[in-house]
Amino acid sequence: MVNHVESLYNYHVWANQRIIDHLKKLSPEKYQKEMKSVFSSVSKVLSHIYLVDYGWLNILEGQNMNEAMQSSLQLQEKIENLPIEDLEMEFSTLSTRFISFLKSQEDIEKRIMLDNPWASLRETSLSEMILHVVNHGTYHRGNISAMLHQLGDSSVMTDYAFYWYSDNVIQQK
């Protein structure tokens, strides 16, 4: 049986894939179109979700926050310039790595000291960090939805309740 934290992370993967599948229907010009919004383009928001997930996984695997942020920054230009199909592959590889990490944990409530360069030290659990990754992705998928409407397009529903009824949840039982 999948635990609640894994289920939430699986929802995050599902929601990202729904957005990616939808964005692949856009022209590359529209996907990368510069605009005045929360981010300068839809492609930059999607890249941001990936880079933050990448950084948090590195933290979960033992890197300090500064090192993890540097790793993400080193990837930023490459990730931001990938065609969506290549970014989709990067997301797939990262989510496989993330799920492997989750399955290897004996105690998802294990607490670690997180040294955030902007906010100082804080003891937190692995599960809280996963919940942050999921929440962060949800927030920015909302940005993508709003930006698509600005561009005259529709978005797709990625609410958690829609995930409950998807085939993905049934397959996990």
Automatic annotation (TrEMBL):
Gene3D superfamilies found in the cross-reference section: dinb family like domain (1.20.120.450)
Record InterPro entries: DinB, DinB/YfiT-like
Metal-binding found in the keyword field: yes
Keywords for the protein's UniProt record, in alphabetical order: Metal-binding
Parts forming coiled coils: none
Pfam family membership, one: DinB
Claim: Metal-binding is one of the keywords in the record: yes
Membership in a protein family: Belongs to the DinB family.
The protein's name in its UniProt record: DinB family protein
Provenance organism: Bacillus salipaludis
